[in-house]
Design a protein that fits this description.
175 residues; alpha+beta
Length: 175
């Protein structure tokens, strides 16, 4: 089933609940475009959360779920998923996210560090969305609360760019 990972883990490390003032279908399409855009960016870690190391760069690889596999969210996958959403919104959207860390040495060269691997589930009910994050492995350089806040801030920027209302945070809890 497109958008849903059959083996989503039971252990959830972070949860956030949001009110979706606009159309769920539009929010789902914006989430896809937002994660697609993040796939192309490298940022300083301290730009995402001020208390994190300025000597570290971070990049993302998001993939979309379909049954028991994830597919990298490239242009082709974005088009395929968007076409599906144009017909019907999904109750659940699951994503894989690899967070790549690189230290920057004195010669301004990037030195790879261990990656974090997360599974993300977006559950849509009525006018609300619940976001679950499950950390699969890695050193967790990027704390769950900062990771969730960063993703939502990025999604809300995309919503704003499209003249849509942002997601309203109701609660955020992490382990």
């Amino acid at each position: 089933m497109l958008g849903r990972y059959e083996n989503f883990p039971e252990v959830i490390h972070g949860r956030a609940q949001f009110t979706c003032p606009g159309s769920i279908r539009e929010v789902q399409q914006v989430i896809l475009r937002s994660f697609h855009r993040l796939n192309r960016q490298i940022r300083r870690l301290d730009a995402m959360a001020s208390h994190l190391s300025p000597q570290c760069k971070v990049g993302f690889e998001f993939g979309t779920a379909e049954d028991t596999v994830f597919t990298y969210l490239d242009d082709e996958e974005l088009d395929r998923f968007t076409k599906r959403l144009s017909k019907k919104e999904l109750p659940i959207m699951d994503f894989f996210c690899a967070v790549h860390y690189h230290a920057v040495n004195k010669e301004d060269k990037r030195v790879p560090l261990k990656f974090d691997y997360h599974l993300i589930r977006c559950i849509f009910r009525g006018k609300s969305m619940e976001l679950w994050v499950s950390h699969q492995r890695g050193p967790q350089h990027f704390p769950f609360q900062d990771f969730i806040t960063f993703m939502i801030r990025h999604i809300n920027e995309e919503l704003s760019n499209e003249q849509l209302k942002p997601l309203d945070l109701e609660y955020l809890r992490t382990l």
